[in-house]
Amino acid sequence: MKNDALLERIRVYWNEHIHDLEIARHPIGSREFFGELADYRFEKLDYLPRVVDFSAYKGKRILEVGCGVGIDLIRFAKHGAIVTGIDLAEVSIQLAKQYFAHEQVDGELLVMNGEALQFDDNTFDMVYAHGVLQYTADASQMIKEIHRVVKPGGEAIVMVYNRYSWLNLMSQLFGIALEHEDAPVLKKYSIKEFRVLLAPFARVRIIPERFPVKTRLHHGVKALLYNQIFVQCFNAVPKSITRPFGWHLMALATK
Ligand SMILES: C[S@@+](CC[C@H](N)C(=O)[O-])C[C@H]1O[C@@H](n2cnc3c(N)ncnc32)[C@H](O)[C@@H]1O
Q: Residues with Cβ within 6 A of ligand 1?
């Protein structure tokens, strides 16, 4: 396969960079560790429970591609979904297994490449991939695979980063590093490009989300100005104006 070497670099990188690990204070793999990662995630991504109805898939088969340690996947499972999570990084899948065991929740967790899914066509009611396509070697190939394993009439929920967003602009103006900027692949999309990527799906709705929230990660004057002035001012502007510039492009797609 032409991307084998790049996929290997991606695998190595993500084995060494668990998403949001820098906020963890408890020992890696402990019950409290997963608790604090989940709290941080839903504070930072406060839009997630509004856009994704985690309780709507009771008895349905869900696949999460690039599930990381399984923070979102376990939410679906706790609401009764039959879940499978795959990730290229063994460390993520090991941790996800520990998380599911701590919470006594069932789930199938497998090391697998999302660009070559080992599932039959039309297997899942919904496939979820949050913050994954932008980090893989061939995003079109991953979408092709996601589309293949979704049942006819089933859904995909996919998030990529918005090139024309407040965060990308800030990072370019002030040299603020984006999360995982050092990853082997990090792509950003315009809404138009994202639509082209999702072309295999019959219907696609794209919702820009992820507006500024106070940072807990940074300290000092810059962080103070950011928290006290920028976040407040930005969020005072009506969403009807700022919405197109959200950092996360959430796509709700139907096959
Ligand atoms: C930014 S993390 C996001 C993790 C999780 N979805 C979340 O939102 O917390 C990106 C994840 O995508 C996974 N990934 C990247 N390319 C992949 C591929 N080709 N197949 C499966 N997983 C992949 C990485 O290993 C990593 O766990």
A: 10, 14, 19, 65-68, 71, 86-89, 92, 113-115, 130-132, 135-136, 180
